[in-house]
Known about the structure:
The complex is a heterodimer.
Chain A: H1 2-19, H2 35-55, H3 57-60, H4 78-82, H5 85-93, H6 116-127, H7 139-151
Chain B: H1 2-24, E1 34-40, E2 43-49, E3 57-60, E4 65-67, E5 75-81, H2 89-102, E6 109-115, H3 123-133, E7 140-144, H4 147-157, E8 162-164, E9 172-174, E10 177-181, E11 187-192, H5 196-214
Amino acid sequence: xxxxxxxxxxxxxxxxxxxxxxxxxxxxxxxxxxxxxxxxxxxxxxxxxxxxxxxxxxxxxxxxxxxxxxxxxxxxxxxxxxxxxxxxxxxxxxxxxxxxxxxxxxxxxxxxxxxxxxxxxxxxxxxxxxxxxxxxxxxxxxxxxxxxxxxx
Amino acid sequence: xxxxxxxxxxxxxxxxxxxxxxxxxxxxxxxxxxxxxxxxxxxxxxxxxxxxxxxxxxxxxxxxxxxxxxxxxxxxxxxxxxxxxxxxxxxxxxxxxxxxxxxxxxxxxxxxxxxxxxxxxxxxxxxxxxxxxxxxxxxxxxxxxxxxxxxxxxxxxxxxxxxxxxxxxxxxxxxxxxxxxxxxxxxxxxxxxxxxxxxxxxxxxxxxxxxxxxx
Lengths: 152, 215
């Protein structure tokens, strides 16, 4: 009997744990999504946050605010939100540091070890957090963008 | 009853003593002392020379020569970094910028960042970096120079690790330490420049060191 009760508690605990499987607090999820899309979207946001915190926060900071003019902000950047394709290329291949003093930016390092899925998760997280509302970035969108920038 | 009073009294005394130590202690002088033997009036005597930062001469973001004399009558915070550093440098810059803002108006405090990648971090590159960060000399000197000299002063004077390493992120292995140097070129504190609370402590210690000169 007490074993059964223990099991019941454990089961309840599991169910409750599942309920707390939620998107990161700073992220936005569009309404009118069916359950399957909602779950996939949420998974991308959660995984994207983990990857963002590992690979991007050093420079772009925890809430995408950037730092001074050294590291650009990811919040409300019109260029970034307009088309996230180039951002996929930036994440994967970085920027070349230029030696000319004029208009010289700090180079963004290449992160070639990131897979297309991981880049899609990062972009979905960036595109839907801290007030950004840019919709879902799919793996195929990333793949197409990377083909484009590889040929340039 | 009486005894209890005494015990409580002792406890307060102890607590008070701790407080006393916390607010008044002097910062230690760090580094390895050197013992030299010299002859005075025909007698050999041993003398202790405390560790101090060696003579240096580097070029800053405005192409000016920076030496120890540039920090005469100042205390300064030194660190080692490079511009295209993907790992700890962005956080170090962010933390050093806090120190910059806090002591901007105090001309007794200077900042000195050495690049450990002088072949890329030229004067022009450092000028651009300082510009993007929005800081200027003489408060914050970014210096470049002979690579061996920079690595050498890093290791023997500031006692931090700075080396090329193809397996490290960005190609260099280096410490994220901030070092507090007093007016006698002695190291008075070492802090982790990537941790905000450590930099809070550094800023407190800067004030502590400054006030030791006012007495």
